[in-house]
Amino acid sequence: MSTDRETVWSYDTVAAEYAAEAAVMPEWVAAEMDAFVTELGGSGRMLEIGSGGGRDALELEKRGISVRRTDISEGFVELLRKSGFEADLSDPLTEDLVDPQRPGTSYDGVWACACLIHVAREDFGTVLARLAEATRTGGRLHASVREGEGEDVSTHGSAAAPRRYVETYWREPTLRSALTDAGWIVSEIRRCVGKPHDRWLSVRATRA
Q1: Confidence band, pLDDT 50/70/90 cuts, at residue 167
Q2: In this structure, which CATH number among 3.40.50.150, 3.20.20.70, 3.30.9.10, 3.40.50.2300 belongs to the domain 5-207?
Q3: How much of the chain is helix, strand and coil, in % rounded to 5?
């Protein structure tokens, strides 16, 4: 599996609480979203990896983008469905990424905000390559990972339930190489800061 099972369990357990915590979009994510939508020309069909509570998908749809919501956490998928949205339980390492609404048609873009941090380093290139295969030539990618060395176990968040998230950290040169090897042309990797000591590498790339 691409994601540690206890990480998935942690999200399943606190899906609603996590969605409430993450309801307000950080400024750096909003800026990346605006750039992503501009690069797509304000329209298109997009695959979202790690939809979580659905915040980003809603904002993308407000900007004119059609979104396929997916998540590896059953808790998040159930939450989205209860809210009236179509959502698919999907692991991008192992599941078929074909769009059920448009079989045989590639996505115009992939949005993977703050979710690939949970992909094991040895699986990261495979996931990026599978996302590239599902995207049309010239399609766009947004992905963000934590900047740093190695990996760690995080217990961040304020929801009452216990949490344990395995997170993999990246440096720009290694991240850029992984993207290029997987079939993406990197336009830019931006350094973004959320909360104090919360450093992100935010990728803007095009399907080769």
Answers
A1: confident
A2: 3.40.50.150
A3: 35, 30, 35
